[in-house]
């Protein structure tokens, strides 16, 4: 297996194998699923104050309006593995694209809060499917030397979507046009639907379906060297033939596979406990707690989105050079210290102009810290540590966990802020970031430049989780 991995990762000149322009282009197109994810995640932050006014929504109802998308995403993640296994990763993304469009139209035209919630459940189903299928698809068409960057590009698209949603909200806020805020998402949804229709199936899924000739044609178009493509194809086939168990059967029978599933679930819980989504969904409310006006808080939220996007770009540039573990640890430390600063400022009362600027700076520092590691690398690692026959099941479990934790936090955050106070809430999130450092040191492997097959070999050999990349 070492010999095959070496052939896969290097060409005849000994240089790391690079993806072709076609593989890169297909990865970027699949990453547009992240754009839709980000748009629908970010748009509610600016629209919520005006929705609350029009529908006379209480704090509890606002929590349902926000969290209904997370509940839909959790269910979408539950069915994503089955759809992806039967119809392919592109099939799952196609269903997601259709749901994005339907959900957008329902939200924009909603005559009541109930219809709005139903529309957001549709959007959640789409997000759950897309968040499962797109990173998986990208990981399966990309060579290991570029895999971290390409999967992180998916997260960059998420942050771009959030930023564009915040900009749209800011421009429409003066007229309180929340229906336009939600309805304009139909344009990128239609674009994504058209793009998904031209994506080929991933070679690994085709091999799982016994369509070897089709897989060979696709893989040859994605690799710059036919010999490397053949070696990769042989390696995939060897993995598929090694065990008859797959999915839940493999989870039930193989304790090593259970370890990778539990690691993926733990990473997703830790990502949500950093506090990022609580901040993104309720950013205007947080800034209003620091005595920002409504319009000023929405523009400050837009700055949050811009910072998130720019620093995710930094992560893409660094992830395949610095590695996963160093970036993740640095990310947790920066985010934790920044949230501690937010908590302290809120505790003493950030009412002066100087204090407001300082609070905004700490919020932006937190977002920057999250964006260089905790955001993109969790999705990268979850797609890397699962073995071929269990990848749909393993990533499905981690994605469901992400959205379940996301739903719980977004649903309870307004009430937690009331019960604990804003200061204590953000100090609590700072502590969770510190805990994430310990989890990374103890359990997270360094997968930079390591093939998926090598990670799988180490997993089933019983190596410690943190040593899977060695």
Automatic annotation (TrEMBL):
<feature type="transmembrane region" description="Helical">
    <location>
        <begin position="92"/>
        <end position="111"/>
    </location>
</feature>
<feature type="transmembrane region" description="Helical">
    <location>
        <begin position="416"/>
        <end position="444"/>
    </location>
</feature>
<keyword id="KW-0762">Sugar transport</keyword>
<feature type="transmembrane region" description="Helical">
    <location>
        <begin position="296"/>
        <end position="319"/>
    </location>
</feature>
<protein>
    <submittedName>
        <fullName>Sugar transporter</fullName>
    </submittedName>
</protein>
<keyword id="KW-1133">Transmembrane helix</keyword>
<dbReference type="InterPro" id="IPR005828">
    <property type="entry name" value="MFS_sugar_transport-like"/>
</dbReference>
<dbReference type="InterPro" id="IPR036259">
    <property type="entry name" value="MFS_trans_sf"/>
</dbReference>
<feature type="transmembrane region" description="Helical">
    <location>
        <begin position="26"/>
        <end position="51"/>
    </location>
</feature>
<feature type="transmembrane region" description="Helical">
    <location>
        <begin position="356"/>
        <end position="381"/>
    </location>
</feature>
<dbReference type="InterPro" id="IPR020846">
    <property type="entry name" value="MFS_dom"/>
</dbReference>
<feature type="transmembrane region" description="Helical">
    <location>
        <begin position="150"/>
        <end position="168"/>
    </location>
</feature>
<keyword id="KW-0813">Transport</keyword>
<dbReference type="InterPro" id="IPR005829">
    <property type="entry name" value="Sugar_transporter_CS"/>
</dbReference>
<dbReference type="InterPro" id="IPR003663">
    <property type="entry name" value="Sugar/inositol_transpt"/>
</dbReference>
<dbReference type="InterPro" id="IPR050814">
    <property type="entry name" value="Myo-inositol_Transporter"/>
</dbReference>
<feature type="transmembrane region" description="Helical">
    <location>
        <begin position="117"/>
        <end position="138"/>
    </location>
</feature>
<feature type="transmembrane region" description="Helical">
    <location>
        <begin position="326"/>
        <end position="350"/>
    </location>
</feature>
<keyword id="KW-0472">Membrane</keyword>
<keyword id="KW-0812">Transmembrane</keyword>
<feature type="domain" description="Major facilitator superfamily (MFS) profile">
    <location>
        <begin position="26"/>
        <end position="448"/>
    </location>
</feature>
<feature type="transmembrane region" description="Helical">
    <location>
        <begin position="180"/>
        <end position="199"/>
    </location>
</feature>
<dbReference type="Pfam" id="PF00083">
    <property type="entry name" value="Sugar_tr"/>
</dbReference>
<feature type="transmembrane region" description="Helical">
    <location>
        <begin position="261"/>
        <end position="284"/>
    </location>
</feature>
<feature type="transmembrane region" description="Helical">
    <location>
        <begin position="63"/>
        <end position="80"/>
    </location>
</feature>
<comment type="similarity">
    <text>Belongs to the major facilitator superfamily. Sugar transporter (TC 2.A.1.1) family.</text>
</comment>
């Amino acid at each position: 297996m070492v010999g095959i991995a070496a052939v896969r990762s290097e060409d005849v000149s000994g240089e790391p194998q690079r993806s072709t322009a076609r593989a890169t282009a297909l990865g970027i197109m699949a990453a547009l699923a992240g754009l839709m994810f980000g748009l629908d995640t970010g748009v509610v932050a600016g629209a919520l104050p005006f929705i609350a006014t029009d529908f006379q929504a209480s704090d509890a109802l606002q929590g349902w309006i926000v969290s209904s998308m997370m509940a839909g995403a959790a269910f979408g993640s539950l069915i994503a593995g089955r759809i992806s296994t039967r119809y392919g990763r592109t099939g799952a993304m196609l269903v997601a694209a259709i749901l994005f469009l339907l959900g957008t139209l329902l939200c924009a035209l909603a005559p009541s809060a109930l219809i709005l919630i139903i529309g957001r459940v549709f959007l959640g189903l789409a997000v759950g499917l897309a968040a499962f299928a797109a990173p998986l698809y990208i990981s399966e068409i990309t060579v290991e030397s570029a895999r971290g960057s390409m999967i992180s590009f998916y997260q960059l698209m998420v942050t771009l979507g959030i930023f564009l949603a915040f900009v749209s909200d800011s421009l429409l806020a003066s007229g309180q046009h929340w229906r336009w805020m939600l309805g304009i998402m139909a344009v990128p949804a239609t674009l994504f639907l058209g793009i998904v229709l031209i994506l080929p199936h991933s070679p690994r899924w085709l091999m799982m379906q016994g369509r070897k000739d089709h897989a060979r044609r696709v893989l040859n178009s994605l690799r710059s060297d036919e010999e490397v493509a053949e070696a990769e194809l042989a390696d995939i086939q060897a993995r598929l033939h090694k065990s008859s168990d797959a999915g839940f059967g493999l989870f039930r029978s193989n304790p090593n596979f259970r370890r990778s599933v539990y690691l993926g679930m733990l990473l997703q819980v830790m990502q949500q406990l950093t506090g990022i989504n609580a901040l993104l969904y309720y950013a205007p409310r947080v800034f209003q707690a620091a005595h920002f006006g409504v319009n000023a808080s929405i523009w400050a939220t837009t700055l949050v989105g811009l910072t998130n996007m720019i620093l995710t770009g930094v992560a893409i540039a660094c992830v395949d050079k610095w590695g996963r573990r160093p970036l993740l640890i640095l990310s947790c430390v920066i985010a934790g210290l920044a949230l501690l600063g937010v908590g302290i400022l809120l505790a003493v009362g950030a009412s002066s102009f100087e204090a407001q600027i300082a609070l905004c700076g700490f919020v932006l520092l937190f977002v920057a810290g999250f964006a260089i590691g905790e955001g993109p690398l969790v999705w990268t690692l979850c797609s890397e540590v699962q073995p071929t026959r269990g990848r749909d099941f393993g990533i499905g479990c981690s994605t469901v966990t992400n959205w379940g934790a996301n739903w719980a936090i977004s649903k309870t955050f307004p009430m937690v802020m009331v019960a604990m106070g804003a200061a204590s809430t953000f100090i609590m999130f700072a502590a969770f970031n510190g805990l994430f450092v310990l989890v990374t040191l103890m359990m997270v492997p360094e997968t930079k430049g390591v093939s998926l097959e090598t990670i799988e070999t180490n997993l089933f050999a019983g190596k410690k989780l943190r040593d899977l990349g060695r």
